[in-house]
């Protein structure tokens, strides 16, 4: 079965590919730099001082879930961090994404920090510029696109002209040199879309017995008269991707003049066209409301609201929207919308993993939607009759089996069965009240989430207030909270009025 990775969905003309067009701003470092080693040591000492920022980042969508292992010198500022193991040794490497200043033309750069066993510290081993310039739309993923059991670094983003960019870096093999170093094997930017077409590989590849097929790259550009689709394939003898095919398809005649004008317009006209209710095939409704910067999804008794963060045009009849959940900001989506005609659109909604930044298609909300005439007010499916007031939780709670739960927003500590977990927590409303924990280890790295349905009860008598928390385990999906068969946990907090004591 074949599937593909759609790198980004935004505007973008091919600018080069091949060994002769490698970026000149690459740099490889030697591990003998005492200055860099010293800077890394001083930076490492600061890691333990940023626990609160890391927790808030995990809760509210900060891209940097760990601290940099090396110092980032001005004028560069940190955009993203990815902790990985690129060479299968004991120590992880770190991919740092940085950008110089706020200039729209300054390129985004990636730096690999490697561990030096001689000096017991990290140093910058290699760096390279990418074609992207916009930090908010930059992503780094790792994949064996070549098929030789080595991991390539895939960088996707947008440049200062609004073009979509793709840079793939492959590790170099150098005799008598153990330092990490990479070289670009494809570098393109297009006014359209870029797609890495993945396919399943053989069991022999999965078992490490033989190499697998490489993944081709497709770039699609649409102009007034035709759509041009270019295919790039890996050539092991050359050591880079080359263009092997180009297909030109005439555009279908657009009969609707208003649609023709819309397709030739900018983002604002697209947003105005979308700003209404749209009913889907599966009892779902989407309301695009640009005036309030919100996108609301309805289905059955489910309602989800997303902040409309940004919009980008790609191809003539399509737009891409970035959004984040109003209640839980680290839940992010990308909505790709293609206009079929004046009254229907095709919606592809992608969930974005807040740690790996990979996108996965959400079938629950994706599909064809039909316009509801402006001025009408269709029933908002799932709109609650009255707002639910969520409790503010803090302090010490004791469980029925001796567990101890300490809440100091946004942090928590849970001690149970001789083990202790800590991290961040959030209380929010889906189809039911939800109490969610983001677990963080001693290094400040996120180690997973646990979600519970929250059953809160508060009783008051003459001298005390008793607060009871019922935590029913479950999972969170796009359709809301779903309970599992795991046992419920119950915690109690007692607050005395006079003696100011609790248990």
- Count of discrete domains: 3
Give the class from helix and strand content and strand pairing. Answer: mainly beta
Low-pLDDT stretches are 8-64, 377-386
* Radius of gyration, CA atoms, in whole angstroms: 26 Å
Strand content: over 45%
Number of helices: 5
Distance between the termini: 57 Å
Helix content: under 10%
Task: Please give the number of β-strands.
Answer: 32
With strands numbered from the N-terminus, the spatial order across the biggest sheet is 15-16-17-18-19-20-21-23
The average pLDDT value, as a whole number, equals 79
How can the largest sheet be summarized? 8 strands, antiparallel, barrel
Morphology call: globular
Protein name: Pallilysin beta barrel domain-containing protein
Domain Pallilysin beta barrel: 257-369
Region (Disordered): 24-52
Biased composition (Low complexity): 30-44
What is the topological layout?
Blueprint: E1 2-9, E2 27-28, H1 34-44, H2 51-60, E3 76-84, E4 93-100, E5 108-116, E6 121-129, E7 139-143, E8 152-158, E9 164-171, E10 182-190, E11 192-199, H3 203-206, E12 217-222, E13 226-235, E14 240-250, H4 257-263, H5 267-274, E15 277-280, E16 284-289, E17 294-299, E18 302-313, E19 318-325, E20 332-341, E21 344-352, E22 359-361, E23 367-371, E24 395-399, E25 404-408, E26 411-416, E27 419-429, E28 433-440, E29 446-460, E30 464-477, E31 480-483, E32 489-496
Protein name: Pallilysin beta barrel domain-containing protein
Pfam families: Pallilysin (PF18663)
């Amino acid at each position: 079965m074949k599937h593909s990775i759609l790198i980004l969905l935004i505007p973008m003309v091919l600018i080069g590919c091949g060994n002769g067009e490698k970026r000149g701003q690459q740099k490889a470092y030697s591990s003998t730099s005492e200055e860099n080693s010293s800077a890394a040591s001083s930076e490492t000492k600061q890691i333990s001082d940023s626990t609160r920022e890391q927790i808030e980042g995990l809760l509210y969508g900060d891209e940097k879930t760990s601290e940099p292992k090396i110092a980032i010198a001005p004028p560069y500022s940190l955009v993203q961090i990815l902790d990985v193991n690129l060479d299968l040794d004991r120590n992880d490497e770190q991919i740092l994404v940085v950008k110089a200043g706020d200039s729209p033309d300054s390129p985004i750069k990636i730096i690999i920090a490697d561990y030096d066993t001689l000096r017991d510290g990290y140093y910058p081993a290699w760096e390279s510029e990418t074609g992207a310039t916009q930090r908010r739309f930059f992503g780094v993923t790792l994949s064996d696109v070549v098929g030789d059991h080595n991991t390539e670094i895939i960088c996707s983003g947008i440049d200062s002209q609004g073009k979509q960019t793709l840079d793939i870096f492959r590790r170099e093999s150098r005799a008598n040199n153990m330092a990490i170093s990479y070289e670009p094997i494809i570098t393109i930017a297009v006014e359209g879309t870029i797609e890495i077409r993945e396919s399943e590989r053989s069991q022999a590849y999965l078992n490490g017995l033989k190499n697998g097929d490489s993944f081709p790259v497709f770039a699609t550009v649409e102009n007034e008269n035709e759509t041009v689709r270019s295919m790039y394939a890996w050539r092991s003898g050359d050591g880079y991707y080359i263009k092997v095919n180009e297909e030109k398809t005439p555009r279908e005649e657009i009969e609707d003049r208003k649609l023709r004008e819309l397709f030739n317009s900018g983002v604002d006209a697209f947003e105005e066209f979308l700003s209404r209710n749209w009913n889907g095939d599966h009892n779902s409704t989407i309301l695009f409301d640009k005036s309030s910067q919100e996108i609301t999804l309805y289905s059955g008794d489910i309602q989800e609201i997303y902040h409309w963060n940004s919009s980008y045009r790609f191809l003539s009849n399509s737009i891409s929207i970035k959004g984040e959940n109003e209640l839980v900001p680290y839940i992010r989506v990308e909505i790709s919308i293609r206009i079929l005609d004046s009254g229907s659109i095709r919606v592809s909604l992608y969930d974005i993993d807040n740690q790996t930044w990979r996108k996965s298609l959400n079938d629950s909300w994706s599909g064809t939607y039909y316009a509801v005439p402006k001025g009408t007010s269709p029933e908002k499916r799932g709109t609650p009759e009255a707002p639910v007031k969520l409790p503010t939780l803090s302090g010490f709670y004791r469980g029925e089996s001796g567990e101890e739960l300490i809440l100091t927003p946004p942090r928590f500590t849970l001690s149970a069965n001789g083990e202790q977990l800590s991290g961040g927590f959030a209380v929010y409303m889906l189809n039911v009240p939800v109490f969610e924990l983001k677990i963080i280890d001693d290094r400040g790295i996120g180690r997973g989430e646990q979600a519970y349905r929250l059953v809160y009860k508060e009783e008051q008598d003459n001298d005390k207030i008793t607060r009871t928390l019922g935590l029913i385990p479950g999972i969170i999906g796009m359709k809301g909270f779903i309970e599992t068969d795991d046992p419920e946990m119950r915690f109690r907090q007692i607050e005395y009025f006079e003696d100011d004591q609790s248990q």
